[in-house]
Write a structure and sequence with these properties.
Blueprint lengths: L5 H20 L12 H17 L2 H4 L5 E5 L3 H4 L2 H16 L4 E2 L9 E18 L2 E15 L6 E16 L3 H4 L20 H23 L1
Parallel strand pairs: 1-2, 1-3
Antiparallel strand pairs: 3-4, 4-5
Length: 218
């Protein structure tokens, strides 16, 4: 029986180990699909907020057409999250059979929907066992203006959230520095950027209520 020399056996083991190490170096480990990146997590939260808005009775009872406009400044609107918000509004409204157009014309006036982020960010919290709960949160301020005189007849906010639990070791791979998170908005001393339209809405609603009571009394 042939005997293998010890030094040949050791050389074979070293060669095999080197081969395995080299093959492992070329392997790319992909995170599971359920681990959402910053952009995907916020997109899910934005879609949830847009879906709530599309269910607003003032929207669903009006056949449209609608025009989407941002209330954000030019610098703010450059944030990719605003494009995702507009896309989410368009998708949610189209799924309900609502017409959304690029712009209104004199021949075809449209109900104008104006929007702005109050908040769009990710909050991390410990979930135990070396895991982290990542909560994507989007708060959107929306105003609806009438077709004819362009009067404001509704204003409010919608919140969308989406949660994702991941290992804490995956956080660095899910972070996307291209995503510029927003908010929460801080009002200047003595001012509230959204209080005026809400006051107008409240006054309008009160007048409609009083008119209805007066009509029923007669």
């Amino acid at each position: 029986m042939l005997r293998t020399r010890p030094w040949l056996r050791a050389a074979a083991v070293c060669a095999a180990t080197a081969l395995v190490a080299a093959s492992c170096a070329n392997v790319t480990y992909k995170l599971p699909d359920e681990y959402l990146s910053d952009g995907d997590l916020l997109a899910a939260a934005i879609s949830a907020a847009a879906a709530k808005f599309a269910a607003n009775p003032l929207v669903t009872t009006d056949a449209g057409p609608y025009v989407l406009e941002t209330l954000a400044s030019e610098d703010e609107a450059a944030n990719m999250l605003y494009q995702r918000l507009e896309d989410a509004f368009f998708t949610a409204m189209s799924e309900r059979g609502l017409q959304v157009r690029p712009e209104a014309t004199e021949d075809t006036p449209a109900t104008v929907i104006k929007y702005r982020f109050v908040e769009c960010r990710i909050v991390n919290a410990k979930a135990g066992a070396g895991r982290v709960k990542r909560v994507g949160r989007a708060v959107v301020h929306v105003r609806i203006y009438g077709k004819e005189a362009g009067e404001l007849f509704w204003a409010g906010e919608y919140t969308g959230q989406f949660e994702n639990v991941v290992p804490s070791s995956a956080i660095s791979k899910l972070t996307d520095t291209r995503v510029e998170q927003i908010g929460p908005e801080q009002a200047e001393a003595g001012q509230n950027p959204f209080i005026e339209p809400l006051l107008v809405t409240g006054i309008t609603g009160a007048l409609i209520y009083l008119f209805a009571i007066s009509a029923s009394a007669q």
